[in-house]
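The instructor's notes for this session suggest beginning with a concrete chain rather than abstract definitions. Hand out the sequence below and ask the class to guess, before any prediction is shown, which regions might be ordered.
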Amino acid sequence: MKTMTYSESRARYAETLNAVVDDREEVVITRAGHDPVVIVALDDYESLKETAYLLRSPENARRLLASIDRLEHGGGIVRDPAE
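After discussion, reveal the predicted structure:
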């Protein structure tokens, strides 16, 4: 994750946005006297929001994490998405 000041980000705005989108690089912008912010690609942000939503319910989180664990240990069935 790259960090830059507000002034740096303004001076290199197009380059910064291109890095976020093209290189999937999050950029932290520090601001004097204010909390920092993060610039992230929209689809990455939407993915983070969806993951947070799915993990919000403790029961759902347990089920999802158990499923991931099973898959990582050779469980599960590989299916064609067209099925």
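Then share the key points. The helical segments are 6-11, 13-22, 42-56, 58-72. The chain has four helices and three strands.
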